[in-house]
Input
Amino acid sequence: MKKKGTILTVAALSLLTLAGCGSQSSSSSSNGSNKYADKQELNWTESSELATNDLAKATDTLSFTVLQNTQEGLYRLNSKGTPANALTTKTELTNGGKTYTFNLRKGAKWSNGDEVTAKDFVYSWQRTLDPKTASQDAFYFFQVKNAEAVNSGKKPLSSLGIKADGKYKLTVHLTKPVSYFKKLLAWPLFYPVNQKAVQKYGKKYGTTSATTVYNGPFRLTKWNGTSTTWTLAKNKTYWDKQAVHLDKINEVVTKSTTTSYNLFNAKKTDETLLDGQQVKNNKNNENFVKRLPTGTQRLSLNQKTVPAFKNVNVRKAFSLAIDRKQLVNDVLQDGSTVSKGFVPAGMGNNPKTGEGFDKEAEVKSAVSYNLKEAKTLLAKGLKQTGKKSLDVSLLVSDTDASKQTAEFLQSSLQKLPNVKVSINTIPYVQLITRQHNKNYDLTLSGWQSVFADPINFLDVYESNSSYNTSSWSNKQYDQLLDESENKDGNQASKRWSKLVEAEKVLMNDQGTIPLYQAAKSQLLRKNVKNINYNPAGVPYDFKTTYIAK
Output
């Protein structure tokens, strides 16, 4: 069992959308309909650069959003967040829920002309799990038979529980029933990859738009690996191209909401994220849309670079010194809400009582503000660690919201005696690399779920998690998560209780410092229709989006 989520692009994205998948009739203006504008071109903003176009290397929301729109898997999520058939036409579930047999769609093509077949899925999964690939997300496959042993190099790739039975039949064997497995299959990490393309481009695969092939609604174009602009162009080889209305999606990186706001008002873009003041000024704007995805921001304390953070009193002192209400109400002002814990609202409800997880598992002391108590605990913690002072650096991305949050945290933490905090801002792509390498003292970390279940968040802090960069570890926590998935997976109430208990262990020990659930309010032109948005996963799927007259 491992992490099921993605690093949330800081102040960048609203959350997921995966478009309905069945074949739909074309309704473009060319066939006489007066519903569609003559020019089907969407202009979109992002607040960070694109990190990768290789699904085995992606870890952040933006990368997965681009992959979602340029690739196709067995399923796509529909407007209700339910997996709908895409490359599978029929799925048979046997062996007590542990064996899936997929009949694949015939005639689906890659953009290089190759047919999409079962072997493309086998190759993709084996490649992601291959230790040589060093995929940070390989653990997502560990429910598949032998996946963990393959990833650790203990078994050959051929032993992985996925087999191609001819071109159009795919069989997957799991180690246990997984209730959310179809939702995972709708996530780009589980999509197929064209082996010919990977072998042709080698290490350059996925590093530019030209070194990837596509089987989804769009093709990525005009991206050289570091571009601040790129285009998603309609993919003429896509099997369901008649359902795709947009000819182009032009994307531009604008790290400042002031810049993107000005571009929107100048009618150069069709969308912009809003900061706090802009939200206040535009609540009555006909184009205003408020979104509250299941994405959070937290303060991570690295116990390896700052040994004092191993002390629970020091960690609690840092948490108690932060007035989260002031942060969201006076600094961000964008509709973000104070975190009740690490797991945000919208991640599931008690199967018996219906109570939200975030409310049931809340540990108020872990998200409260009490500067007096913080000073007392810090003095106690420093004495226990033999330290007289702390001089630490806070690493954040160079987006507006991140810098505003960093300045607030710096001011808050420096109210603690003998604490000095410096701020280091870097581009987001560099940030996620530094975080992965555990090269920071303090950092703002974001997390976005792949599907709505508390485990999506909680297993980030398992001891062996590749995303647990702070080195916090707790045996009781690990045991509770292990039992919830491997012992009580089919007993909803027991599983729920152990997840609640695990969250409380994490919060009582202040394994991390939750800050807020990030709102992603935006202006979106009213004539942009059919964006399929789901708050609990990869953000936008533009497959059926169109520009109305």
Observations:
- The first strand starts at residue 5 and ends at 7.
- The mean pLDDT is 92.
- The first helix runs from residue 61 to 70.
